[in-house]
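Sync notes, pocket subgroup
Present: LS, DG
LS reminded everyone that the earlier model was apo-only. Rerun requested with flavin-adenine dinucleotide included. Inputs:
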Amino acid sequence: MNITQLFNEKRPRFSLEIFPPKKDQGGIDTIYSTLDGLKDLRPAFISCTYGAGGNPADSSTRDICRIVQENYHIPAIAHLTCVNSTREQIDEVLDSLAKAGVENILALRGDLRPGCEPQHDFEYACDLISYIKSRAPQFYVSAACYPEGHPDSPDTVSDILNLKHKVDCGAQHLISQLFFDNEDFYDFREKCAIAGINVPIEAGIMPVSSKSGILRMVSMCGASIPKKLARILNRYEEDPQALRDACIAYAIDQIVDLAANDVDGIHLYTMNKPETAKRIFSAVESLR
Ligand code: FAD
């Protein structure tokens, strides 16, 4: 299914992101319990991340997308990073995704990781997007965007121009990095409109579950923590249940405001925790 067709509705679409379970946590077989918990939420689609090192031999993203589509009848998007892969390796992954019936790809550069030498066939996500569009045009291609700017970017202007270039290369839909201040998203959306970026932009929402976890995450992705959320993290860091409840309320508050501001879609980073996703979705059921 062409994901972009989903965005013709007046109401925001709600989608979910999952990741392949680690081998020492039961491996791919344990994904069924996550998906059993998520299926009744009727997401517009489920996307599945690709290992950070970009190992093309690891087929778990493809396998999970196939399970999502075939067993749960939910459209799937397979994430795919390129910076650590050769052209031949990307060809292999594209062929195997096509064979598995996966039609949607979130095309990413991937992080530049110390000790992981880039392969130079693909320098940026735009190179992968162009490549997919020329080699396998049957795929619908999504890309990532960054309301607070990508951490490698020297400035917002170049970041927005690079994003416009990704769309010009063929990205048909954007999913944003997590953010905690909706004003950052609205400013970003306005800049995108000025730059002529006119594809659907989904807002990435991350329900926080631990203070140390989110501090680690924002130190990598460059998102900022507003005072309101910092106060919650500081007040409840020793009380996991209270912290979870407060952060679910925070995520719901963000989503209500985004829906009221006509966002195209909400992409919930589920962290493979169906209970949290259920609580959030049930609180905003009538908004979608
Ligand atoms: P790009 O779009 O290539 O941008 C990277 C940097 O280069 C930016 O600073 C940009 O401004 C700049 N740039 C882009 N194009 C050009 C150009 N033509 N010339 C000069 N500069 C340029 N990582 C994973 O490993 N696996 C995942 O599954 C995964 N899923 C993600 C899902 C979402 C929704 C998001 C937001 C991120 C995800 N990431 C994932 C993280 C992502 O790989 C990193 O953020 C990575 O550092 C950048 O990837 P990108 O595709 O946005 O890169």
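DG: Residues 49-50, 52, 79, 81, 106, 108-111, 124-126, 144, 150, 152-153, 158-159, 162, 165-166, 175, 177, 204 surround flavin-adenine dinucleotide (CB under 6 Å).
LS: The chain has one domain: 11-287.
Action: DG to write up.
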